[in-house]
Amino acid sequence: MKEKRRLLLIIDTLNSGGAQRQLVGLAKLLKDNGHTVRVISYIDAPFYKAFLDENEVDNECLIEGGPAKPNYIKVYRAIKKDIKCFKPEVVIAYLQFPSIMSSLIHSRDKSFKLIVSERNTTQEFDWFERIKFWTFRWADYIVPNSHSQERFIQLHYPKYASKIVTITNFVDTDIFVPATKQFENPTPILLSVGRVMVQKNVLVFINVLKRLKDEGILFKVLWYGGKEDQYFKECETKQKEYGLDGLLEFKGRTNDVLDVYQKADVFCLPSIYEGYPNVLCEAMCCGLPVTASDVCDNSDIVSSSCGRLFNPYDEDDMYNKIKEILTMNKSELAKMGECSRDISIRKFSKVEFVIKYESLF
């Protein structure tokens, strides 16, 4: 039987992001396995706090009313104090600043084992990235959530090779399940979930939607997720310019993403880069055919049996692949959806996810 540990999980905020979803899920799974688990954050955006409370996972925002741009010296001291009080045997840090601060603390305090987790794929190897990876010399393990990020670290930091353990994202396939009745929408609903930001390639996606509309292809697009102000304004302007009102709706964040998946017909993720995208995996668990950019780990997730991959920089390719899916008949879509579900059960296991983390303790 695995020895039970005192575990401290650190993240910047408990907002609705994908990294947050994975961390709170990990916290629950570790608690269910008998470990003593505490989750701390320092930016007050408690979207997932209710989930932790419902599952009786100890959690706290260390900075009361913590701002979106915190004082990192104050945060560093608060994390250091919490580590001293809680006395964890293992610290797991998600995202950049929590990982950097945990590494700096660990440089002086060796009373715990430190696991830092990379949640995206590095696109610009700038000074900040160099500082971050420099601090990882004090981590015991570096855990990318994608094989593309593993390759990046191996290439640029071969001295870290023995520390790198890739653990891809999990999805609870008992919760994310297909709807009992799919493909009943008179007009196909094409769904995307994610923050409206440059990374998600929304402006090019809107160009594609205009071309589909002009050709008479039937569709309705629902996009769920937060909005980065300036970029969203550009998207909204183009949406109106192209006459896509009623065909493209930016719905904002949702508290019931499962319902959103189950009411859609097809999922699309047009990003220019990703890590190991939660939303793509969740959509597949819910039995949706998928279209996605052929970037990072997406080709390890999506096969031709369940969807189509396109070049996010090639508007024609994106247009042709999305059109192909939208013009399939219901039986073809249903078969692709079944393949999505089969793949998800094999690849996104929560059991394997938590076992891999426990193996590092």
Describe the structure.
The protein has 14 helices and twelve strands. It has 361 residues and is α/β, with parallel strands linked by helices. Strands 3-2-1-4-5-6 form a six-stranded parallel β-sheet, with helices on both faces. Strands 9-8-7-10-11-12 form a six-stranded parallel β-sheet, with helices on both faces. The radius of gyration is 21 Å and the shape is globular. The chain starts with 5 loop residues before the first strand and ends with a helix.
Return the average pLDDT rounded to an integer.
94
Q: Give the number of DSSP strands.
A: 12
Query: Residue share in helices?
Result: 40-55%
CATH fold description of the largest domain:
Rossmann fold
> Which structural category fits the helices and strands?
alpha/beta
What percent of residues are in strands?
Answer: 15-25%
Topology:
Layout: E1 6-10, H1 18-32, E2 36-41, H2 49-54, E3 58-61, H3 72-86, E4 90-94, H4 96-106, E5 113-118, H5 127-135, E6 141-144, H6 147-156, E7 189-193, H7 202-214, E8 220-224, H8 229-241, E9 248-252, H9 257-262, E10 266-269, H10 278-285, E11 290-293, H11 298-301, E12 307-310, H12 315-326, H13 330-347, H14 350-358
Parallel strand pairs: 1-2, 1-4, 2-3, 4-5, 5-6, 7-8, 7-10, 8-9, 10-11, 11-12
